Amino acid sequence: MAKEKKTTARASDITSVDRASSENQANPVWFKPVMFGFMLLGLAWIIVFYVSQSVYPVPSLGSWNILVGFGIMFIGFLMTTRWR
């Protein structure tokens, strides 16, 4: 019985170590440029909207272009929660 308990305990220890190490892994190389790219693209979208006096980037959206820009930036900000 003692051997079974030790074996079970070791298996659960290994599983918890594997789970912990997989959660703390570093991000891939492309993660940071994509994250900052989304934030800058959203900012550029809003700046273009204001500078062009609501003609660009998508004229048919009108004032919804602001929401699109903030939505793109929000994707970048959400990515910061996974940045390690």
Could you characterize what this model shows?
The protein has 84 residues and is mainly alpha-helical. 71% of the residues lie in helices and 0% in strands. It has helices spanning 2-23, 31-51, 64-80. Helix 2 (31-51) runs antiparallel to helix 3. It is elongated, with a radius of gyration of 23 Å. The chain starts with a helix and ends with a helix.
Largest sheet: none
> Looking at the chains present, what oligomeric state does this protein adopt?
single chain
Radius of gyration, whole Å? 23 Å
Tally of helical runs: 3
The chain-level mean pLDDT equals 85
Ends distance: 43 Å
Could you tell me the strand content as a percent range? Answer: under 5%
Give the gist of this structure.
With 84 residues, this protein is mostly helical. It is 71% helix and 0% strand.
